[in-house]
Amino acid sequence: MQILRFLIVPRKLVSWFSLILIGVYLLACAILFFQWVNPSLDGRSDQHIAADSSTYLYMADVLREGRSDPFVLAALSSFPNTLWMPVFLALVLKSTLLMALVNLALFMVSIQLFRRSSYISVGVFLSLILLSPTTTISLLSVNKEIVDFFTMALFCYSRATGRKWVLWFALILSLFNRYEVCLAMFVFLLAQSRFNPWRSRRAITLLILILSLNFSLPLLASHSLANRFAEASDAGVIAFLDSLEMHYLFVLAVIPKIFQNFLGEIPNVSNWAQYNPDDPANSYILVLNNMASLVVVCILAWKRFMRIRYDWVYFAMIGAVIMSVSLVVQPRYFYFCFVLLCFQASHPRTARRGRPVQLIPAGEGIGEV
Questions:
Q1: How many CB atoms lie within 10 A of CB 143?
Q2: Distances (CA, A) of 122 to 77, 278, 321
């Protein structure tokens, strides 16, 4: 009956055009999966496309077959651990095609959660999210980013509806997927709670967070930072910034490191045409990710939403500060920040008297489109 109603109910031309575009996108994803991504996952191709998906699949195979691989056992034995969730998905789902279908289902559920969290243009939100190649790659492989997308949808929905169990689910899921995202959620909640005497002064709160990391990182994680710095392959500016971080100067490095992850490839025009067929993730994909971020930032600036008083921009800033602790340039670590900025950018620009539309406070209702 729902299908018949969908076909019978009159729709605007724009709606039909949007449906056609979505159909074309799904067809392109299917072609991309069978011709490019899946061969790289099942060993028919040695191209490095879907980030660490091959590693997750290998670890799942080791566990499934009961093999004793010291590398796998050591990698999975620590906590918190960013390997657990993708390896678990690969272990349970087994088929790469089934993984892609589950990812698509999670994506569709997430879109509905975002839609019910606030008054947004779903078309704008989808358009901005799909600008990033990370979204497409995440839909077609086993990874952490699609789970990050889902946890952000759960978190936004919990804030809009006041449903505590949804919030706890988002926190626990993010803890086992990418614990830094869980930490960002916790810090955001703490920053807005009564335990923060400066909760109405968000700039001061951000500064306190940066200063706390500035002095605590070299003291509490000096050994870990030193090892990761020695393993990092990046040189030049990013190595210099990492060195500042390890010497109590994170306060000077944080903004350049965030810029490097969001927009760092755009000024390197000479690298745009240097496509490496064996490692496309570090060629066109990084550049296109940065360009997608630039588009979203420009839209936020045009709508006058790129301000700390907007909750999701504030949350994205907190998340970006926490993720910038990483000693490597890896924009996909910041994917959840990109999702939050897209969510904010998809809100209407003006309401009555031309004032920007505010987000719905927790517990005051659900926005419909």
A1: 26
A2: 41, 36, 28
